[in-house]
């Protein structure tokens, strides 16, 4: 688990980019970074929290920064290939983001199953 996940934040490229661009006290962000940050925050504010899927966040990242250049994947450092991040094929969501999404879905399923089990126990005990 990385630092973003420990704080309950998604560990996608958008979150990593924002986390690594926090200004130091008394030092303003440069114009390009400030413009990108404003655009990201503005677009995120237009979307309900429940609709901020990994796919939506990746699409927003690409909308703001464009497609990655050949041999480079933004926020993953040098030497990381698209295949390392996105896997083989035409997947658009990084593997770590997909894993986080699946983990969230599993938690929701467990909560629903647990809730359904409680309801069944109440019904059976009242019969």
Automatic annotation (TrEMBL):
InterPro entries: Probable_transposase_24 (IPR004252). It comes from the Eukaryota. It holds the Pfam family Transposase_24. Residues 108-127 are annotated as: Disordered. Residues 108-119 have a biased composition (Polar residues). This is Uncharacterized protein. It comes from Stephania cephalantha.
């Amino acid at each position: 688990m990385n630092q973003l996940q420990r704080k309950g934040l998604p560990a996608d490229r958008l979150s990593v980019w924002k986390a690594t661009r926090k200004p130091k006290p008394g030092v303003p962000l440069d114009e390009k970074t400030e413009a990108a940050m404003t655009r990201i925050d503005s677009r995120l504010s237009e979307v309900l929290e429940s609709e901020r899927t990994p796919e939506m966040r990746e699409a927003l990242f690409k909308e703001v920064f464009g497609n990655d250049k050949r041999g480079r994947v933004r926020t993953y450092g040098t030497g990381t290939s698209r295949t390392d991040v996105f896997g083989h094929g035409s997947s658009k969501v990084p593997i770590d983001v997909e894993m986080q999404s699946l983990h969230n879905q599993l938690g929701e399923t467990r909560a629903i199953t647990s809730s359904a089990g409680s309801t069944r126990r109440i019904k059976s005990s009242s019969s």
